[in-house]
Amino acid sequence: MYESMMGLKREQGNMHGTPLWNARALANNVVNTVFQIHLPTSCHCMFFLSVTSPLLRTPQSAQLNSTADNLVSNRETSPCSHELKCTWPPASYRERKQVFLLPELLYLLRKVFIFFQAKGLIISYQAEDHHLDTGMHEQRAGWGNSGLLIQTSLVYIVSSGQSGLTSETLSQEKKKKKEILKSHIAHWWSPDGTRLAYATINDSRVPLMELPTYTGSVYPTVKPYHYPKAGSENPSISLHVIGLSGPTHDLEMIPPDDPRMREYYITMVKWATSTKVAVTWLNRAQNVSILTLCDATTGVCTKKHEDESEAWLHRQNEEPVFSKDGRKFFFVRAIPQGGRGKFYHITVSSSQPNSSNDNIQSITSGDWDVTKILSYDEKRNKIYFLSTEDLPRRRQLYSANTVDDFNRQCLSCDLVENCTYFSASFSHNMDFFLLKCEDLPMQILKPATFTDTTHYPLLLVVDGTPGSQSVSERFEVTWETVLVSSHGAVVVKCDGRGSGFQGTKLLHEVRRRLGFLEEKDQMEAVRTMLKEQYIDKTRVAVFGKDYGGYLSTYILPAKGENQGQTFTCGSALSPITDFKLYASAFSERYLGLHGLDNRAYEMTKLAHRVSALEDQQFLIIHATADEKIHFQHTAELITQLIKGKANYSLQIYPDESHYFHSMALKQHLYRSIINFFVECFRIQDKLPAATAKEDEEED
């Protein structure tokens, strides 16, 4: 699958379709596709224009132009939810299987954009013929102040001419972008809209993974795609800037000249000014990062800050906040705060006009974390941020002076009764902010009819991904709440070693021994709960998903204080079972580079744990087309379960992806999990001993 980059630039109030590169159509056999364009208008109405077409080409532009004119002319009288559809091309053209090209579609969009002055655009694609379905059902367009970027799955941009380059502009494999950038977006507009920065990801040397499809045809098919696992070849990545105001000129930003950066990731990109772009480069071992400020006119990058860790570097995707002139910026870095290790605090870097050295100052300090910098008010010399200063499980809004004493003030503390977990956003002029309460004032979920004299089953829910937080005072409704409210269970979550927002010492303790310390901490939480008289010690379960699925499987065989089994049952959804089989960026971050020292990879395999699984009920759930955690993980685990004569059940979702996009499948999934634990927690009616003996005599 390929993607395209096309552009629209504004000239004297008009928009002209201008391709940034020459494009060629690859899907010549696609005759009928659907482009659906969502246009927010200045009156806050949403208009929809659906054009059925493979990719447009003259001489049929007249009908499309009249369609755009019709949409424009009806704007004043049309209701806010107006929808106009145009079937394209006509049946006669579909019968001839004529192929169309993209520029005419851009011309159609141009006419609509001129009138509505649209600020955003989403294009969704779907092939009507099932056998032509490429699997890419979504396209995106990103807006700058004066330009448009369209990504499609049918057009490939040829700019380098390099053979085997599968991802020239924006990688169609969202997994790679999201694992590193924590976002599907890999293009960034300059503030004035005259330049566009974009990531180039080349995965031509990355080994292929094959996802099987079992349904829809007599013979199963496979979909190959590049997937970097621990120790294998990684995609190469580079950052480019292209100017849109004059002649097209593509310029690559020069990475740091550092031997530790022989292989690297790009984890953050943000424009500081219209000619300066900030970039964070992270080495493959993920223990060295360099923050640079790159000149978009020359490609030269100047180092502004460097971080190094003996374990791994956390929170490398966070964007700095810049002053308007770009000479001052605020960022979060880990600073030593005593015996608990480092905590993340705000640092300001200021550059002087006639000096090559930057002035670095820490604005906040203490054994708590700044979780997010929200905004910088230059007029009032204040920085606004969220932090855990109150408690690690809370998020309060603070302000701090950026000059003199750096005095800070809590703006949300005691503002709303029983609310301690906030998020916030600020208006453009910094005069107003929107404060949202996401509070849930409890740590253990109990039934509404809870009494101390009743015995309740206990479910331990684990996530535990290093740096994550399970215990917070944020309100959310999940399937666990259904188990609590409708089936009388008690649910507990625990943040132990490896969790976030409690200092780097606690975070880094799990390095190279994933599962080992988390089990100890989670079991300590369970033992504490089992001391409560209202917990039924014979009905205890554990559940986890993804990395939590790894932990739930790791913890399930754990013994209690009397060396008896603690858990009656457990379930794992899409579990990681062998980190050698998982994404290189994740596995190498916590276990080191595979191939240099593989002991950590061998020690963390679940194969070493499942031999102790005998009597407990164990439900494994996995989608066969899981593109993030391959079904291979579960297949390897089941092989070991069979060898160990374990009691397990497997529930699969044929040809479904990791994210369960279908609502019907999600409902079935959650219903299955709930039913499993309801059955596990069911109190079996035991026959009195005398009656049982009488029955035996009668037989």
Report on the architecture of this protein.
With 699 residues, the protein is α+β, with helices and mostly antiparallel strands. Among the domains are: 158 residues, no CATH class; 237 residues, Alpha/Beta hydrolase fold, catalytic domain (Rossmann fold), CATH 3.40.50.1820. The chain has 13 helices and 37 strands. The strands form nine sheets. An eight-stranded mixed β-sheet has the order 2-1-9-8-7-4-5-6, with helices on one face. Strands 31-33-32-34-35-36-37 form a seven-stranded mixed β-sheet, with helices on both faces. Strands 11-12-15-16 form a four-stranded antiparallel β-sheet, with no helix packed on it. Helix 5 packs across helix 12. The N and C termini lie far apart (69 Å). The N terminus and C terminus are likely disordered.
List keywords for this structure.
single chain; 699 residues; alpha+beta; Rossmann fold; eight-stranded mixed beta sheet; 37 strands; 31% strand; globular; disordered N terminus
Oligomeric description of these chains: single chain
Number of helices: 13
Number of strands: 37
| Contiguous runs where pLDDT drops below 50 for at least 5 residues | 1-140, 150-173, 685-699
Instruction: Specify the CATH homologous superfamily of one domain.
Output: Alpha/Beta hydrolase fold, catalytic domain
Task: Give the overall shape.
Answer: globular
Q: Please state the average pLDDT score.
A: 74
Taking the sheet with the most strands, its summary is: 8 strands, mixed
Strand content: 25-35%
CATH class of one domain: Alpha Beta
The helix fraction, in percent, is 10-25%
Examine the coordinates and then state which fold CATH places here, giving the name of the CATH topology of one domain. Rossmann fold
End-to-end gap: 69 Å
Strand order of the largest sheet: 2-1-9-8-7-4-5-6
State the CATH architecture of one domain: 3-Layer(aba) Sandwich
**Structural class given helices, strands, pairing?**
alpha+beta
**Radius of gyration (Å):** 28 Å
